[in-house]
Design brief:
CATH class: Alpha Beta
CATH architecture: Alpha-Beta Complex
Order of helices and strands: EHEHEHEEEHH
Low-confidence stretches: none
Largest sheet: 6 strands, mixed
Helix content: 25-40%
Strand content: 15-25%
Number of domains: 1
Mean pLDDT: 96
Distance between the termini: 14 Å
Bound molecules: inosine 5'-triphosphate, magnesium ion
Oligomer: single chain
Shape: globular
Radius of gyration: 17 Å
């Protein structure tokens, strides 16, 4: 089901400050008034889905039901070709309780090191789900292709950004201007599709 999002309060159903920052910036032009899950004191649901889409929908659905407001959730991750798409939907979980992405990036490198001449192709995926309290929902997916660098570089992004270079670029997502990342990322790609459907 697709429908238009009216101006007004919208819950950004994420507990990741890096994502909330990016989504808030992307929403800027559309008359939505973003409120984060943390500001609303919403719980962080268990991500029991087996796809990015299922996890995005369950996060947005819970936030819409609990807040009585439309809610936008993002489920995203880094998929490494030579690792059969890992860490994928487990991207946050590979960083552990302490959210140590330095450690998660070293784990990826260690696994790649075990594979002879492993290709370094990877892509980020972003599923965005928008749910309304009355049961309506929209889901879209975006993607950006690139390759992994070692050692990681840059501290301007979050998560796996320091190890990812978009195809055709030289700088990692951790080094580029955040405004540029907002235009070219998997999240920007998903957002462009969402805008076409609901704004
Ligand atoms: O579920 P929420 O509360 O939104 O926050 P989260 O951090 O747990 O988010 P996910 O479950 O979607 O896990 C995705 C992980 O993938 C990584 N990731 C997603 N988008 C990224 C991006 O643009 N740059 C770098 N890493 C990203 C990041 O480390 C996230 O923690
Ligand atoms: Mg999560």
């Amino acid at each position: 089901m697709s429908r238009k999002l009216l101006p007004g309060r919208l819950v950004v159903a994420s507990h990741n400050p890096g994502k909330v920052r990016e989504i808030t910036a992307l929403l800027g032009a559309y008359g939505a008034e973003p409120v984060s899950a943390a500001e609303m004191d919403l719980p962080e649901p268990e991500e029991t889905g087996t796809t990015f889409a299922a996890n995005a929908l369950l996060k947005a659905r819970q936030a819409a039901d609990l807040s009585g407001l439309p809610a936008l959730a993002d489920d995203s991750g880094l998929c490494v070709d030579a690792l059969n798409g890992d860490p994928g939907i487990f991207s946050a979980r590979w960083a552990g309780e302490s959210k140590d992405f330095g450690e998660a990036m070293r784990r990826i490198e260690a696994k790649l090191g075990d594979i002879k001449d492993a290709p370094r192709d990877a892509h980020f995926v972003c599923a965005l789900a928008l749910c309304w309290p009355d049961g309506g929902e929209v889901e879209v997916e975006g993607r950006v292709d690139g390759a992994l660098v070692n050692p990681p570089r840059g501290d301007r992004g979050f998560g796996y950004d320091p190890m990812f270079v978009r195809s055709g670029d030289d700088q990692t997502f951790g080094e580029i201007d955040p405004d540029l990342k907002h235009r070219i990322s998997h999240r920007a790609d998903a957002f462009a599709k969402l805008v076409g459907l609901v704004f």
